[in-house]
């Protein structure tokens, strides 16, 4: 059923009256519904829904209602998967320098965390590289690739959640003698990179619904089938898969449904201290649902990457130090409104002092911010700005930004809160660290 909302104005009121047009689906085939109820014992509404969604056959209905890991298909069915497994095992055996080149959203960060943990279980020591959103942009940009090579001197680069369209960048890596394996789910363009293996479901006939962490799961499944590791149970990693899959908004059907269903159960008993602390600071309680990821855990992990680098989010998923995990979980960018910045918030912020190594100052985010007036230049270097968000206005400073080209309004802003003392009065002050066009 769908509900379409319409607005109309009454003759004596300027308040819009809301009316809805109800759209009902065509009735499901009654014979198919009856047969499905008889075979499965499900309720009438469930049988009607299953038939309408194409799961009228009892075996497919059972798979839908009871997603099981044993129903997952052979990971080698993905394009170029055997070649990717061969190259990674060779790199492990030869103790080559491996760099995992990721993306800064939740799908990218969970992908790197999953692959890094499994490769370390094999005895490898992969470097994890995340580009800077502000300085290097999305994917395998020329600047990002150059920094990755400069910092890690890899012999093998595994591009995760990117790389399908990076023809020139991968060619440059090949010219330097660096092999590349791509694990990506983005659409394929006419020209594809020449690399050791391009594992992208869009090049085949199935698995188009997988995001990158799902592809990484398939890769590590294939690795473990080829070369098992004593004591490593892939089920313990399904929480990372569920987290990235739900946050990336891919369809929760077929194998994604299995991965998320079982991953949510694993998330409730996660082994990773970073996720334990993130769940705690998010105030979530079991049972966990996709909404808890979409509106709780996901935005916290996404915030770091959207405003600069996702390194803190990745470290949170990899650390084994509970104290470090607690600090990282508490200090992932917090989204607030300008109206929430008051003396009480300043006092609570001050209580977190002193800031420094292992206790960084919280970085806040406010979205959809506009300007009341043109920024004022101070001492030829800095900007003084009067911000507006909704009905709230707040003055801010941005040091060293006088020469910057500002994006179009409205903005999302990343900022610190400082204590401002002037002529005997104390007030909170916004100190901007970065701005971007609002998303």
Brief descriptors of the model:
single chain, 14 strands, 38% helix, globular, 439 residues, five-stranded mixed beta barrel, inorganic pyrophosphatase (n-terminal core), 20% strand
Q: Your description of this structure?
A:
This protein is an alpha/beta fold and 439 residues long. The protein has three domains: 65 residues, no CATH class; 244 residues, inorganic pyrophosphatase (n-terminal core); 103 residues, OB fold (Dihydrolipoamide Acetyltransferase, E2P). It contains 15 helices and 14 strands. It has a five-stranded parallel sheet with strand order 4-3-5-6-7, with helices on both faces. The longest helix has 17 residues. It starts with a strand and ends with a strand.
Give the CATH architecture of the largest domain. Alpha-Beta Complex
- Distance N to C terminus: 31 Å
| Largest sheet descriptor | 5 strands, parallel
Helix content: 25-40%
**Assembly state (oligomeric):** single chain
The CATH class designation of the largest domain is: Alpha Beta
Strand content: 15-25%
Offer a concise description of the structure.
This protein has 439 residues and is an alpha/beta fold. It has helices at residues 30-40, 44-52, 58-65, 81-93, 106-121, 142-152, 167-175, 212-226, 238-247, 255-267, 273-281, 290-306, 311-318, 322-331, 343-351; strands at 2-9, 16-23, 98-101, 127-129, 156-160, 179-183, 197-199, 334-335, 364-371, 376-378, 382-389, 392-398, 411-422, 425-437.
